[in-house]
Write a structure and sequence with these properties.
heterodimer, A: alpha+beta, FAD/NAD(P)-binding domain, Elongation Factor Tu (Ef-tu), domain 3, Arc Repressor Mutant, subunit A, 4 domains, 7-stranded mixed beta sheet, 6-stranded antiparallel beta sheet, 21 helices, about 35% helix, B: alpha/beta, Gyrase A, domain 2, Four Helix Bundle (Hemerythrin (Met), subunit A), Rossmann fold, 3 domains, 6-stranded mixed beta sheet, 17 helices
Chain lengths: ~625, ~450
């Protein structure tokens, strides 16, 4: 056990999906790290759905892995099924999703933490941060122990003043009846942090032995082996299916009859809930003309019969939930094992953060995960790894790592949060990304592994493998650009078999592969490379050439964006003294304090003329500063 | 940070026989060269040289205007970037057409004060001018904001909003297909998107059509000056013409006689109807009679009714007041330099919403207020006839063309089998471009649309 008064480089508070990544990143970057958690039994706990990934979220897991994080590796070891979604769409939106064995996921993550050399894992509740003159210097626990550090990462999830709501029953609690964190919430207030009250919810769980799956559609995993991590070589082949059923008119009528008992409508809930995660009662009210809603039954693990009822998030009273379940096909006899509930909690207004995730108010304090107003394990892990990297870099007296929106979904997430804030729990969607075509599932390593290596999270060995893959892609693309095929009978026959038009003249392979029906395998057939390329290399070659035009178009937009991004806003700027700027722009700019003109341009209410005025002001001041 | 090329008219419209369009930026010479036809290409021209030639419409290939083009290469220019200045014949039509041709070829409309801003940022102008630059940006933006506000209420903006909503719904549907692949929303097919895109393109075409026909942009606001004999119609005409200087038009067949029919009042082109009649008889009403003049008045976008301050209201005056009540009109009570005989109260009561201005044209008093009133009428949204869906603004035209191009790219993409989630990129661009017309910035609209249109959740 760490003794009171002990000193670390980095202290991480909370061992959820954000905290685990933050602590591992910091420890792996060579910083002595203390990870404090309320309970060692809830490390990397999944209080809601038993799945990881999906569109945008799956992209993030790949990115975390490409940077050297743990989530991808961990789910690869502990899933019960995996599916690639959107395979009939373009490669930019292919999305991998896994169903997790929740308990196994926790155990594996705990093992990873325990085995990390620079990491001390300890169970204790933090009640206060030790803040001296606006600088965070450590933490004070409920047991009275004080631990000191250069930087602190705070990842409180939904524990801050957590309140569970079921019908008209409410009680103070963290998720799944964990103890809530009350004193720390008040302490953050005392430190001057502005907070909001958010709400989220979870559906009931049922016992599989009481579920009649013969009335449902089976949802199996993919037969082709899948993995999130670029490092995974061993695949799980034994998969469990999920099941699909639907609500019906009986369900809807029953809910309507009991609406007056729903806390959403009786006024018990004050917190702002997410639109993308409405409770079933909310769906029935808002989409009254829809006569059925999908319900997925998802196993919570291999060693349990407990099943998650996706689509039925609710905070109706317990007995209503039980009866409600039984109106659904296949759930007539279902035995409810856990009751669904809504939970309210404090989140800090994320515009109080720098893009590094350090708070503006308290130096050396970083926050990550649901405390920043997000929702989702993946969103939490993404912030966790970035906060961990930057907390460690601050210790190492190095500049913070801030990704840009053309580099990663992680950047889209963090930039949205710190620039625009959010008035509901924030979930990533592919439509939030401007450069979706560049931020693909397949190329996360090409986007981020170099960076992961530079900060010290990618091993030499992994980096060498990565570099040789990158080179192989470039070589093969060059070869296809420089190789032509003539309209020989072999070529024409192949094209005919693909229902593609025949060649009139010789054509470069790089052009031929642009035809929608022509795949890399066909090219390989016509003109095999000297050394056969790996499937990963072939995939990159095909995507990069096939969609070259669209990729170029996106790159041009990125160039424009970068110019704005590269124009830094110096810290001596005083918005209140800039005349001519609209008062809305002035107020928002002084609150967010954007670091670049690009960031400033994304604040709603700041228009181009405000930016022009700001630019002129900076240039003017710049001259004054230089000469004076 | 500015690497795009901007263009704008740099002389006040109508103030001279020649108008100068300035183009600045790295591609200034290349862009100008694309629409220029002369002895040799501008790209080969030495810096600070002048070239005679013609500007060609890139769409139709027709000659737009006979011009002198000055090529000035960086850094010895106002903005320290490559600059091309095109001197055209001053009329509204050719100048706007040349500008449009530049936009079609890759230049974008300069923001207010942008040339000066670039000059400043490139170190060309001196520090003491920085404040002035800010004032310039601010003041012009205020005006632009007022115009935008007016347009926000207008028909063009309604049409653009509807169009954007169409695109937005399609985008939201595509987004749901991508972000919630298992959700039971109908999967949009290439065929559906193709049909919707074609429909959107047609709508944009129609808007551009109105631009071509845009009455005000082409012809100015048809303005009739009416009133009893000797009330000062001719003097008013002369005063307006004198004050604002006549616009030289290049409409074929026009002579110097009709040139003075066009006057530019605070940027608004007025075409004075039946000016000759006024000059010859000094009385349009008398000549054609009140009944017949009604017809002429119906065709006018703006009626200026003159009353005599020095005489009591006559029966004819009352009839005319009756007539103009349902028109876009301004009542001008002239000759305030003389003893008042007119019952102003009675006039005001019969006017309802029609503005009343008092002037003494002889003493040059009140003309400012009249111009103000005209400007208000046509800038604040109470503008005239039903066919006035003005796509008259060159910036709007260039944005519409850009949006059309983006929708065309979407259509091409679908037809060549590109995945729909990539086609979405083009549609989203078109949606954003159209947003530029009504001043909408990027917001959460799409996300909002997704969650109001579809029922999603865990």
């Amino acid at each position: 056990m760490p003794t009171s008064g002990e000193r670390y480089d980095v202290i991480v508070i909370g061992a959820g999906h954000a905290g685990c990544e933050a602590a591992l990143a910091s420890a792996r970057m060579g910083c002595s790290t203390l990870l404090l958690t309320l309970s060692l039994d809830t490390i990397a706990y999944m209080p809601c759905n038993p799945s990881v990934g999906g569109p945008a979220k799956g992209h993030v897991v790949r990115e975390v892995d490409a940077l050297g994080g743990e989530m991808g590796r961990n789910i690869d070891k502990t899933h019960i099924q995996m599916r690639m979604l959107n395979t009939r769409k373009g490669p930019a939106v292919y999305a991998l999703r896994a169903q997790a064995d929740k308990v196994l996921y926790q155990q594996e993550m705990k093992k990873a933490l325990e085995n990390e050399p620079n990491l001390v894992l300890h169970q204790n509740m933090v009640e206060k941060l030790l803040v001296n003159d606006g600088v965070c210097e450590g933490v004070l626990t409920r047991t009275g122990a004080k631990y000191y550090s250069t930087t602190v990462v705070l990842t409180t999830g939904t524990y801050l003043r957590g309140k569970v709501i079921i019908g008209d029953l409410t009680y103070e609690s963290g998720p799944n009846n964990q103890q809530p964190s009350i004193n720390l919430a008040h302490h953050l207030h005392d430190l001057g942090f502005e907070t909001v009250r958010f709400k989220t919810g979870t559906p009931p769980r049922v016992n599989k032995s009481t579920v009649d799956t013969s009335k449902m559609e089976i949802q199996p995993g993919d037969e082709e082996p899948r993995a999130f991590s670029y490092e995974t070589t061993q695949y799980i082949t034994d998969q469990l299916p999920c099941w699909l059923t639907y609500t019906n008119e009986k369900t809807h009528e029953f809910i309507r009859d009991n609406l007056h008992r729903a806390p959403m409508y009786s006024g018990v809930i004050e917190g702002e809930g997410p639109r993308y995660c409405p409770s079933i009662e909310d769906k029935i009210v808002r989409f009254a003309d829809k006569n059925r809603h999908q319900i997925f039954l998802e196993p919570e693990g291999r060693e349990t019969l407990e099943m998650y009822v996706q689509g039925l998030s609710t905070s109706l009273p317990e007995e209503v939930q039980q009866s409600l379940l039984r109106t659904i096909d296949g759930l007539e006899e279902a035995e409810m094992m856990r009751t669904g509930y809504a939970i309210e909690y404090d989140a800090i207004v994320p515009t109080q953060l720098w893009p590094s995730l350090e708070t503006k108010r308290v130096e050396n304090l970083f926050t990550a995960g649901q405390i920043n107003g997000t929702s989702g394990y993946e969103e939490a892990a993404a912030q966790g790894i970035m906060a961990g990297i930057n907390a460690a870099r601050k210790v190492q007296q190095k500049e913070a790592v801030v990704l840009d929106r053309s580099q990663a979904y992680i950047a889209v997430l963090i930039d949205d949060l710190v620039t625009k804030g959010t008035n509901e729990p924030y979930r990533l969607l592919t439509s939030r990304a401007e450069y979706r075509l560049l931020l693909r599932h397949d190329n996360a390593d090409l986007r981020l592994t170099e960076l992961g290596y530079q900060v010290g999270l990618i091993s030499e060995e992994r980096y060498r493998r990565f570099v040789s893959k990158r080179e192989a892609i470039e070589q093969e693309i060059t070869r296809l650009r420089n190789t032509t095929v003539k309209p020989t009978e072999q070529v024409q026959q192949l094209l005919r078999s693909l229902q593609s038009s025949e060649l009139d003249n010789a054509v470069e392979l790089s052009k031929l592969i642009k035809r929608p029906e022509v795949k890399y395998a066909h090219i390989q057939e016509l003109s095999p490379p000297e050394k056969p390329v790996s499937p990963e290399v072939a995939e990159q070659v095909e995507i990069q050439l096939k969609y070259e035009g669209y990729i170029k178009k996106s790159m041009q937009q990125v160039e424009k964006m970068k110019k704005m991004e590269n124009k830094r806003i110096p810290d001596w700027v005083k918005y209140e003294e800039i005349s001519g700027m609209s008062s809305e722009a002035r107020e928002k700019l002084s609150r967010v304090r954007p670091l670049s003109l690009g960031q400033a341009s994304r604040i709603s209410g700041v228009n181009p003329s405000d930016l022009s005025i700001l630019l002129v002001y900076i240039e003017q001041g710049g001259h004054t500063h230089a000469s004076g | 940070m500015d690497t795009d090329t901007i263009a704008a008219i740099s002389t006040p419209v109508g103030e001279a026989g020649i108008a100068v369009i300035r183009v600045s930026g790295p591609d200034a010479v290349r862009i100008a060269d694309q629409i220029y036809q002369g002895k040799s290409s501008l790209s080969e021209a030495d810096t600070h040289t002048v070239h005679y030639g013609h500007i060609i419409d890139p769409d139709s290939g027709e000659q737009i205007d006979e011009v002198l083009v000055t090529v000035m290469r960086a850094p010895r220019t106002f903005t320290r970037e490559d600059v091309v200045e095109i001197s055209c014949h001053g009329g509204m039509v050719p100048v706007q057409n040349v500008l449009e041709a530049l936009f079609s070829s890759g230049a974008r409309s300069a923001e207010p004060g942008e040339f000066t801003k670039r000059a400043f940022l490139n170190g060309r102008i001196d520090l003491s001018q920085a404040e002035a630059v800010i004032d310039l940006i601010r003041s012009r933006t205020d005006r632009a904001a007022r115009v935008a506000m007016h347009q926000a209420k207008g028909r063009l903006s309604q049409l653009v909003r509807r169009l954007r909503q169409d695109i937005l719904e399609t985008l939201a549907h595509l987004a749901v297909n991508v972000d919630y692949p298992e959700y039971d929303a109908e999967e949009l097919t290439a065929q559906t998107i193709l049909e919707r895109s074609r429909h959107i393109k047609e709508e944009i075409e129609q808007l551009l059509q109105t631009a071509r026909q845009g009455k005000i942009y082409r012809e100015g606001i048809a303005t009739a000056i009416i009133g009893r004999p000797n009330v000062g119609k001719s003097s008013l005409l002369n005063a307006l013409a004198h004050e604002n200087k006549a616009i030289v038009t290049d409409v074929p067949g026009t002579t110097r006689d009709v040139i003075e029919e066009y006057v530019n009042v605070r940027g608004i082109p007025l075409r004075l109807v039946d000016t000759a009649g006024i000059r010859e008889t000094e009385d349009l009403v008398e000549k054609i009679g009140v009944e017949r003049s009604r017809q002429a008045l119906d065709e006018a976008d703006l009626v200026l009714l003159l009353l005599n301050y020095a005489e009591p209201l006559s029966e004819e005056d009352r009839k005319l007041l009756q007539v103009v009540r349902n028109l876009t009109a301004i009542v001008v009570v002239n000759k305030t330099d003389l003893e008042p005989q007119l019952d102003l109260q009675e006039v005001k009561e019969s006017l309802q919403d029609i503005p009343l201005i008092t002037t003494s044209i002889k003493r040059e008093e009140g003309l400012d207020r009249l111009e103000e009133a005209i400007a208000d009428l046509f800038m604040e949204g109470r503008a005239p006839s039903a066919d006035a869906t003005y796509v008259s603004n060159t910036r709007h035209i260039s944005l519409l063309k850009q949006a059309r191009q983006q929708v065309e790219e979407a259509i091409d993409g679908i037809q060549s089998g590109v995945p729909l989630d990539m086609v979405e990129i083009d549609l989203k661009n078109a949606w954003q471009t159209l947003g530029g017309i009504i001043g909408d910035t990027v917001g959460e609209d799409l996300i909002d649309q997704i969650f109001s249109q579809f029922c999603l959740g865990k």
